[in-house]
Specification:
The protein is of the alpha+beta class and about 325 residues long. The chain has five helices and 17 strands. The strands form five sheets. It has a five-stranded antiparallel beta sheet, with no helix packed on it. A four-stranded antiparallel beta sheet has the order 1-2-6-5, with no helix packed on it.
Length: about 325
């Protein structure tokens, strides 16, 4: 699933059980107001739409337009005017830019049963194809028995931002958490595992954005498989993947396991009547109830909608 580069091209795959058609949208830059190319995905296997582009390379920005019925009363809310983020994106190439065009219904109308025809391409978050190559060496998860585990829950930025022994340029980042001084501090405490508060890509809720504030804790998740780029030293989406893997490798080498909180119940404040910016909208109603007045959101994907809240061990290989 997602975008997979094999050295010669990229395979794109999206689960969309109730869709009647899916289009892959390629963007030239983060400033693009619309896609430069729109490619119908002709292959459809086991509810997954897919295509292979032999000339695509890492760094390519992309999103999807998903066609299907718009029947809100039965939970079907397809709207191909909206560019959707790949729920399996491994990197985020462009951040969400709040705008009314992101909503599937007409903002200001009574209820959420209307159909908004505005194009969201200029404002939608975009995924980015990555090169997954990384030198893991002889890395292995420590696999400390639970009865011998000492787990330290922490926030990547909060733990390192003001740490006096972390180099200033590394503070607030994955690299800061992987620095020698921090690892020494953790091992001196007898810590065998760190449990990271959300480190996957999240958005700042619109109410926060309009007030010039940010979502510090990171629970409004948009991309469960993409490391949050604001926790990198360069704030780069592509660097986020490598820096995150380096953090895991360095902690493992010190005998420290990495666990991260993966919550599917804490999400952006908008519920059903919220924006259509993630491809969870392509899976409904296969996973969640999207009928009027239901308390489900349209951006939860099939891959993660199995439990209310869980913590999983980081698997970065």
């Amino acid at each position: 699933m997602g975008a997979t580069w094999d050295g010669k091209g990229v395979n794109f795959a999206l689960y969309a059980e109730n869709a009647t058609g899916v289009e892959l949208c390629l963007f030239d830059s983060v400033d693009s107001q619309k896609e430069s190319v729109r490619i119908p995905m002709p292959e459809h296997t086991d509810l997954v739409w897919h295509c292979y582009l032999p000339d695509a390379t890492p760094g390519q920005l992309y999103g999807y337009r998903v066609h299907g019925p718009h029947e809100p009363l039965s939970g079907q809310r397809f709207n191909a005017n909206k560019v959707l983020l790949d729920p399996y994106a491994k990197a985020i190439g462009r951040d969400l830019r709040w705008d009314d065009s992101l909503f599937g219904y007409v903002v200001g109308s009574e209820g959420d049963l209307t159909f908004d025809e505005r194009d969201s391409a200029a404002f939608a978050p975009l995924a980015e194809v990555i090169d997954p190559a990384f030198t893991w060496g002889d890395d292995r998860p420590p696999r400390t028995p639970m009865h011998k585990s000492v787990i330290y829950e922490l926030h990547v930025k909060g733990f390192t931002q003001l740490h006096p022994e972390v180099p200033e340029k590394l503070r607030g980042s994955y690299a800061g958490l992987a620095s020698d001084r921090v690892i020494r501090h953790l091992t001196d405490l007898g810590v065998t595992a760190v449990e990271l508060l959300p480190v996957h890509y999240h958005c700042d809720d619109r109410v926060l954005d309009e007030r010039g504030l940010v979502n510090y804790w990171g629970y409004s998740t948009l991309g469960f498989f993409a490391p949050e780029p604001r926790y990198t030293t360069s704030h780069s989406s592509l660097n986020a993947v490598g820096e995150f893997k380096t953090m895991v490798r360095n902690l493992h080498s010190a005998g420290i396991e990495v666990i991260w909180t993966w919550s599917t119940t804490t999400r952006p404040k908008e519920i059903n009547s919220g924006p259509r910016y993630r491809s969870g909208a392509s899976t409904t109603p296969a996973i969640i109830d999207c009928r009027p007045k239901s308390h489900a959101v349209t951006w939860i994907t099939r891959a993660v909608a199995t439990r209310s809240t869980c913590s999983i061990r980081a698997c970065c290989r």
